[in-house]
Amino acid sequence: MISKPGRSECSSSRSQHEQVFTREWLDLAVKSAGLGAWSSGIESNFQEIFYTEKYRELWKLNPGDRWTREMWLGRIYSPDRESARRTMDAAIAGEAEDFGAEYRCFAENGYIHWHKSWGKVIRDADSRVIRITGVLSDITDRKEIEDERNQLIATLTHDIRNPLAAARANVELVERFPDRISDRNLILDRVVMSIARVDRIVQDLLDSSRIRAGGAIPILMSQGNLKALIEDTLKDFSVQYGDRFNLETSGDFQGQWFCAGIRRAVENLVMNAVKYGDPKKPICIVLKKEAGHVLMSVKNEGAPIPPEMQQHLFESFKRAKGTEESGVVGWGLGLTVVKAVAQALNGHVTVMSGDEIGTTFTIEFPT
User: Fold this and answer.
1) Is this model's pTM higher than 0.70 or not?
2) How far apart are CA 344 and CA 36, in angstroms?
């Protein structure tokens, strides 16, 4: 005869099942979120830190490595170390039930990462803190996005304010001395150039947003002459930056083109050369036809782009390390637009850069 389980046995079995399910669910949730768990207790005076496999991966530890409070603090970037220490000390002292901290830290390869750690304190029956436990995540990507956004706001404000201020100053000059201005047309040209520069910034921002959302630059073909288009573009730049632009052409360039897109690509490449090239050296623009393709290049002299950065230049908000340290203001959208224009024309853009050869960006697309 088989006896039926009693109510207490069923309740106990259900409770055990729920505990197992809860642990498995928590393990799955933690792993899915990319979180590493850690714990430290009073038995080691809160010096030893015990950790999970994911925590070990986040800190690039070897399997079985001993990990202590001092080791943890030693890997934290020095400007953030004291804040992290105070957060942990406050938790051990029982000053807060929940705690958290964000800090930069050194990985094994020397690169700086951002970590976020948060957790809770565990107390005994006498309310003493006997253990602190928590989770850790890598928030480097999030911080990079925040930095990009802050950089965008700062450089966008700078880049828009300057040409608007220049336009306003020229207009006020004409208003204050209407009879004493010898060359009103030159001043008006400068005003138009300043407004056009603001328009380019806005267009680049709009196109970059479209590209990042997975879209493409809309193409509108029109009759035109590429040589005349580039000459007209360089004329506008000469008003502001002087006679330092040399154009070399070979071939007939009358036809149906994506004139607006090509003009913007040329503007961005030339502006890039102006910003980062040697101001004492000329900028060379070459336009030619070759085997059914148009090749359009812009070359400047100056500090080369490091090879490891060249593959990232066409990503939004990416700039070469040397330019970031040079103090030159920019926001890393121009080359993204250049690449999008080239792709819209079923072409591509390349870069060559070195101490002996300077820096050359080349757009190639079929006729």
Assistant:
1) no
2) 44
